[in-house]
Amino acid sequence: MARVGLAFDPAPDRPPVDRIVPIGKEHLAGFHSALDRIARERRYLALLEAPPLVKTRRLVLESLRNGAVHVVALAGRDVVGWCDLRPKSAATQRHSAVLGMGVVAEYRGQGLGARLLAATLELGDARGFTRTELVVRADNAPAIGLYRRFGFEVEGTCQRYLTIDGIDHDVLLMARLG
Fold first, then answer.
1. Do the domain assignments include residue 6?
2. 12-18 contacts: CB < 8 A, separation 24 or more?
3. Where are the beta strands (DSSP E) in the chain?
4. What Cα–Cα distance (Å) separates residue 69 from each residue in 61, 66, 125, 128?
5. Does residue 156 fall inside a structural domain?
6. What are phi and psi of 121, to 5 degrees?
7. What is the pLDDT of residue 119?
């Protein structure tokens, strides 16, 4: 894998991201923690909290056995972001993968999402994925802009796809072919 995500300084009081690596068992607790932090923001993920660690561990390891790509960004030993591609299970859709990603709040807005996405798409291309799709809240302009820069196009709008605290949110279905 290309050395994507070399060190950059998010702020003087935080360690820089020094590595983007494929997820390993040693990263599962940190991934779970990052997932939970972002889910509890109630803005970026369909989850409102992470599943229990045991379930998260099982889901990640099973996904990897099924051909997923999953990378994490490390600041020292802390997982501060991730990006994954989960292949679809139907035989007619094995060329397709669903993208998921997240960056903890303190590390946003500094290019880490782009580094994670570049590393993940490179690995996905090498695995032969010719379609990558995702859903993103229609009001998440920074994420939509990031995905567009990497060749994703809007394929449609799913109206009232999410309801959080009694408020409905539309999502965009975006895909990248090639």
1. no
2. 14/75, 14/106, 14/107, 15/75, 15/76, 15/78, 16/75, 17/73, 17/74, 17/75, 17/80, 17/81, 17/107, 17/112, 17/115, 18/74, 18/75, 18/76
3. 19-22, 69-75, 78-87, 96-103, 131-137, 153-164, 167-177
4. 11, 10, 10, 11
5. yes
6. -65, -35
7. 97
pLDDT at 12: 61
The structure tokens listed for 122 are 């490179």
Instruction: Give the pLDDT score at 14.
Output: 81
Domain that holds residue 169: 19-177
Neighbour count for residue 43 (Cβ, 10 Å): 12
pLDDT value, residue 11: 57
CATH of the domain at 143: 3.40.630.30
pLDDT at 46: 94
Query: Is residue 69 situated within a structural domain?
Result: yes
What pLDDT score was predicted for residue 9?
A: 47
Give me the number of domains the chain comprises: 1
> Looking at the whole model, is its pTM more than 0.85?
yes
pLDDT number for residue 2: 40
Please tell me the distance from the alpha carbon of residue 8 to that of residue 75, in angstroms, as a whole number. 10
Q: Tokens representing 20?
A: 């983007």
Residue 137, in any domain of the structure: yes
The low-confidence residues of the chain, meaning pLDDT below 70, are: 1-12
